[in-house]
Amino acid sequence: METSLAPRHVAVIMDGNGRWAEKRGLSRINGHIAGAENVPKVANILFAAGVEIVTLYAFSKENFARPQAEVEGIFQRVKAFALSFTERPQVNARVYFTGEEEGLPADLVAACRAAERATKSNGDKALNILLNYGGRSEILRAARLLCGEPVTEESFRSKLLFPDLPDPDLIIRTGGEKRLSGFMLFQSAYSELYFCNALFPDFGVREINSALADYRSRERRFGGIKTP
Ligand code: IPE
Ligand code: IPE
Ligand code: MG
């Protein structure tokens, strides 16, 4: 597989679990179960293609607006995924769960921290799961932390939730919607965007290869002009 021109950091806004289930006459939770099963596969395909950092948007702060049973069902899947790293890991990477701890059940937070500890010496790949994350909230938090201090791009970045993480090179959203829904609003300033109609449980090697091929055809200019 072509790895030389792989983006370093790929993010996936994993959307469409609910519709995947509804199309089959199943409850939305079944969609989240199918989505969670697909997570290690997607991460492994991206890592095998040469990607170093994979960020997955799993649960936004705004997703608390959903019925409690659905929220609890999602948390159960995330917890089982986190615990898999202490039992039978399906992905060989350092794993991080990033977002606001406040509002999350204590057992879920404990499972996430255990996964981070269990994987901290793993090789050169990083898997970053955004849980209870909101881009606006992240920016407001940084602004509050900086209150009274000089505000530069560097000082501001140092107060974001991922101060050391390179910005995403490629952001893929599954499920057909063409929006960011709060995803890394500061860090996505120059990310390449790719929207794909596949619902997340159906997002596989074919769709990933199309996204990576599309990325390779892009010219990233960062405000400059085409290099001769
Ligand atoms: C999963 O997709 C992503 C989460 C927000 C947990 P959705 O549950 O949003 O699926 P759709 O968009 O309703 O199909
Ligand atoms: C975006 O999906 C958030 C995640 C994938 C975690 P949503 O389904 O919450 O987005 P909206 O509500 O359609 O914008
Ligand atoms: Mg959705």
Present as ligands are: 3-methylbut-3-enyl trihydrogen diphosphate, magnesium ion
How far apart, in Å, are the first and last alpha carbons? Answer: 28 Å
CATH class: Alpha Beta
- How many structural units, i.e. domains? 1
CATH superfamily: Decaprenyl diphosphate synthase-like
Oligomer: single chain
Note the beta-strand portion.
5-15%
List keywords for this structure.
228 residues; binds 3-methylbut-3-enyl trihydrogen diphosphate; binds magnesium ion; 6 strands; six-stranded parallel beta sheet; alpha/beta; Undecaprenyl pyrophosphate synthetase
Structure characterization notes:
By secondary structure, this protein is of the alpha/beta class. It has a single domain, classed as Decaprenyl diphosphate synthase-like (Undecaprenyl pyrophosphate synthetase, 3-Layer(aba) Sandwich). It has helices at residues 17-23, 28-48, 68-84, 106-119, 135-146, 153-158, 205-216, and strands spanning 9-13, 53-60, 94-98, 126-133, 170-173, 192-195. The chain has a six-stranded parallel beta sheet with strand order 3-4-2-1-5-6, with helices on both faces. Strand 3, helix 4 and strand 4 (126-133) form a beta-alpha-beta unit. The longest helix is centred in the N-terminal third of the chain and has 21 residues, at 28-48. The model has no long low-confidence stretch (mean pLDDT 96). The structure holds 3-methylbut-3-enyl trihydrogen diphosphate (2 copies) and magnesium ion (MG). One 3-methylbut-3-enyl trihydrogen diphosphate is lined by residues 14-19, 35, 59, 63, 74, 175. Residues 15, 175 line the site of magnesium ion.
